Amino acid sequence: MNSNSWKAIFDKYEIIKHDFNAAPYIINAEQIKQATKHFTKTKEREVRILCFQDKRESRPDIFIENNLFILPIRNGEYAIIKGEGYVDIPEIQSVVKIYKSKLDFKLDTSFVGSSEMQHIDFAYASSLIRTFLEDDSLILTIRGRKRTPQLSFKVNNHEISVKGVQTEVDAGYEGKNQIVLIEAKNSKTKNTVIRQLFYPYRQWQQYTEKQVKTLFFEMRANYYSLWQFEFQDMNNYNSIILSKSQRYEII
Predict the structure, then answer these.
(1) Cα–Cα dist 82/80, whole Å
(2) If DSSP codes are grouped into helix, strand and coil, which group holds residue 140?
(3) Is 216 in contact with 248 (CB distance < 8 Å)?
(4) What is the per-residue pLDDT for 221?
(5) Which regions of the chain does DSSP assign to beta strands (E)?
(6) DSSP-assigned beta bridge partners for residue 184
(7) 180: β partners
(8) In what order do the strands lie in the sheet with 240-250?
């Protein structure tokens, strides 16, 4: 969690005195480097590592104690914001659905290793993704990293402007009427930073008039779990809601 590094950063710039109710605190990579240059371990001074806080519990102590989280807003520039920045990934309580693959042969290569990507690909090849979304027209068209165009939106009632921030989509599909973006994990996840869903959603919604949907995907104990999240207001980071979820066993 690099709590010592962030305490040094907060102390150097007296960040705790900032009025977070009035506005986020903006900090850049050079400031972070200057405040942590006396640390000897790479993980204690590497900006990318220090600013990667993808779960509530991965935040440094000073963030947790003061209800703060961090968002990238430019290449090498970050906003420290007060309020909720994460969304829960709830346990799916419904009965596991048995899903019969629509393939008429076995994919031997899909069972070599256990990566997030291969589980997504197998779910798509079996038509599970199409079935969950009730859309047989979906075609894999998006994968990998890109940078956002200019985006403006509200986060906890603060106006935020973002440009050139790196996003990553584990898999994206386009159909006749919608685009579907997937964030995948290979282990049990209780919560995730909303940014991982919101930034790609806003980015791709800016390029198309089709509806953009976001899915969270997990492969756990041979079950394929899918959560569909929606943003009730595309200009509000905190408008995220869970619309449906389901666990499947593919046979």
Answers:
(1) 7
(2) strand
(3) no
(4) 77
(5) 25-28, 68-74, 77-82, 86-88, 97-99, 139-147, 151-155, 158-162, 166-174, 178-185, 191-193, 211-220, 223-231, 240-250
(6) 217
(7) 173, 213
(8) 97-99, 240-250, 223-231, 211-220, 178-185, 166-174, 139-147
- Give the DSSP letter of residue 236: B
Domains, the chain, with CATH or none: 3-83 (no CATH), 97-250 (3.40.1350)
Q: Helices 3-13 & 29-36, crossing angle to 10 degrees?
A: 110
Cα three-residue angle 127-132-133, rounded to 5 degrees: 100
**In whole angstroms, how large is the CA radius of gyration of the chain?**
20
Q: Note the Cα 93 to chain centre separation in Å.
A: 23
Which of 93-102, 115-124, 125-134, 195-204 has the lowest average pLDDT? 115-124
Give the C-alpha separation, 142 to 172, whole Å.
4
Give the other-Cβ count within 10 Å of 197's Cβ: 23
Indicate the residue type of 55. K
Between CA 101 and CA 126 the distance in angstroms is 5
Pairwise CA distance, residues 180 & 171, whole Å: 8
- What does pTM read for this prediction? 0.94
* pLDDT at residue 113 is higher than 80: no
Residues comprising the chain, all counted: 251
For residues 134 and 153, what is the distance between their CA atoms, to the nearest angstrom?
Answer: 30
Nearest alpha carbon to residue 159 among 8, 14, 26, 33: 26
d(C-alpha 180, C-alpha 193), whole Å: 19
Question: In angstroms, rounded to a whole number, what is the distance separating the alpha carbons of residues 233 and 248?
Answer: 30
Return the amino acid letter for 19: D
Nearest CA-CA partner of 116 in 157, 41, 170:
170
